[in-house]
Amino acid sequence: MSQKTPDQFLKEIERTNKGRFKIYIGAAPGVGKTYQMLRDAHEMRESGIDVAIGLVETYGRKGTIEQIGDLEIIPLKEINYKNVALKEMDLDAILKRNPKLVIVDELAHTNVPTSKNQKRYQDVLEIIENGISVMTAVNIQHIESLNDYVNRMTEIKVRETIPDSILDLADEVEVIDISIDALRERLRQGKIYNKDKIETALNNFFRVGNLTALRELSLREVANEVDEHLMEYKNSKSIEGLIGAQEKILVCVNLNFNAEYLIRRGFRLSKMLKAPLFILYVKNGEYTGEKLKKLDDLSQLCIKFGAEFKVITAIDPSLPIIEYAKENGITQVIIGQSARTRTHEIIRGSIVRKIMRGIKYVDVLVVADPRV
Prior knowledge:
The protein folds into two domains: about 5-235, P-loop containing nucleotide triphosphate hydrolases (Rossmann fold, 3-Layer(aba) Sandwich); about 250-365, HUPs (Rossmann fold). It has helices at about 5-15, 35-45, 60-70, 90-95, 120-130, 145-155, 165-170, 180-190, 195-205, 210-235, 260-270, 290-305, 320-325, 340-350, 350-360, and strands spanning about 20-25, 50-55, 70-75, 75-80, 85-90, 100-105, 135-140, 170-175, 250-255, 275-285, 310-315, 330-335, 365. The chain is of the alpha/beta class and about 375 residues long. Helices cover about 45% and strands about 20% of the residues. Mean pLDDT is about 85; it is low at about 240-245 and about 340-350. It is built from 15 helices and 13 strands.
């Protein structure tokens, strides 16, 4: 999506009963997402729009605190949880106040368990449904499908994520980007973390290699969003040039391989190719206990990615995979590296070879186990 001026965003707010949704995205903490969001909020208020702050995380940063200025702040709600007083954004107070635009920081935040919604992005969606526009901020590592990539690059496991579909719902996504040298210098000057955390951060998450990879991810992610909206525009206007068979991706999972990794890999490919995503699991009997829970977890992950999840019972998994691929017009199959021994494959046959023989004109991608 192309970047809009505050005036353009204001005009779009006025044209619809449903709230508009803008996300400021960055490669790392401290790039200036919240600062820029607040600057834009001031400009919109000067244009005559009713603006309020639902929640802003300043982390004690002087520049961010100063940027709040005289913007109205809706008080946070105090929640007593396990004898601890915690403060959360007050969703009911925002809806009652009913500003034209509300600022909601830290989109990936998990709410206190007693809250109405489990995640802050769910609060945001409810606010938008009530006709209030939202500007929010998030770092690239919190996008669900990038979880494995970020973990491999930074060796940091991100616990709080948002579904990729949230980006798709946004009317505008703006990348807040500064050079890696400038970001690390801000860190050294104490503008991101307290002094006692600076050296640790420089040598871990804020390493040059990490920041380079995360910066590339954020720029590429938004470029993908721009391309998707361009395709939607071309289709809605019936512009010529969008011809050719549609790609369809099938990911075949099992409970021994890292199924979550395969599903995320398939989602990234399907998103890049603008292709529907199908997930297939072939079981050989009835499951209970841990295996049943694992299947339920996989099903929930598929829901997040908007993928169709199918479970089929069969002794030989290759046959239902072939049939399913034919029935659904699959063009690419992603499958994990076989755990079978070489002797087992000679006696029973290779699943990959059976699939390749059973379906013509379909690419089969065999993914190595990242844990090995």
